[in-house]
What does this fold into?
Amino acid sequence: MLKAQRIAVASAIFILAAISAFAETTTWYIDPPHSTAHFTVRHMGISNVTGSFTKVSGTANIDSADITKSTVKATIDVSSVDTRVEMRDKDLKSPNFFDVEKFPTIEFDSKRITKNGDKVQVVGNLTIHGTTHEVTLNVDDITPEVADPWGNMRRGFSANTTISRKDFGLTYNNLLKSGEAVVGDTVKIQIDVEYVKKK
It folds into this structure.
């Protein structure tokens, strides 16, 4: 009986060790050349203007066994804003909007991750223009790991959210005779990043 108990204990320890190894959290780094934060805002109430921030960096600590135990941090270089119109980009970098000299980055720091079936949401603090608010990122896709030609493991992540720019102190605007704002308040954000696993 004692021998059977020892075997049972040894088996339990082996199983726990295997589960622990499988559930190990791994660190992933955002690959800036393959990552972008896009935004869309209404122009004069008649069309959508899109732009992007092309310099995104950050890390994710991913628990493959329980995604809700993972964490995400990201930093956007505001000076990398690109709307394909140089004059407009300069205006966005000026004190009229982002004021890059005072607030050079946009930061996101996750607080919790929830999962309901296939639906994953990342809730965290978003800091823009020196103001922080909690936002929820609705995850569109988390890809499986893929090996690249150079021996690195990669995976993709995409998510979206909607914010009010006025909540973050971006209040500058002009009004049309109709009373319609030249630049809308609602901003749709789409994030597409590629992660590389830390070796």
